Amino acid sequence: MALKSFTFIMVSAFLMASSNFGVSAAFTGGRKALVPAAAPALSPDADYGFVPLNTKDPNVVGLAKFALDEYNKISNGKLVFTALFEAILVDTAQGTAYRFVIAATDLSNQLNDYDAKVLVQKDSKKLVFFKENQ
C-alpha cells in the first residue's frame, strides 16, 4: 500500500513540476520523453536564411545542370538532366550555396531524383554535394 501511495505522489509531483516549466510528459514505449508544450509559430515574413528560386529560370537550371555535369565527371556517370524540382539559395560565409533536387535518367532510362549543392564564390563554382534520394 505504501508503494502505491509513493508512486502516486512521485507521478503527481513530476506532472506538477512539468506543467510549471511548460513541458508535457509523453509516454511512449515505456520511455519518458519531454516535449515542449507549444512550439513557437513560424512567421511567413521572417528571413530564415534561404530563398526559394524559380525552377524554370535558365540561370538556375544552368547551375543544376552544372552540378549534374560535375558529378558525371567525378564519378564517370552517365546521368542525363530531366527536370529541376526544387532550388534554394542560401548565403553562407564561404559564398552563395545553391541546393537542388534534380530529376535525371541513367543509361537504362531509370528516372531518379538527386540532392545537389553547388557553392558559388566570386569567380568560381564548385560541386559540394551530390547524392541519390532513396
UniProtKB/TrEMBL annotation:
Provide the GO MF annotations for this entry.
Answer: cysteine-type endopeptidase inhibitor activity
What are the protein's UniProt keywords? Answer: Protease inhibitor, Signal, Thiol protease inhibitor
At the top level of its lineage, which domain of life is listed? Eukaryota
- Indicate the secretion signal residues: 1-25
Q: Which organism is it from?
A: Sesamum radiatum (Black benniseed)
| Record bears the keyword Phosphoprotein | no
Which residues are in the Cystatin domain? 54-132
Q: Which SUPFAM superfamilies match?
A: Cystatin/monellin
Under which name does UniProt file this protein?
Cysteine proteinase inhibitor 4
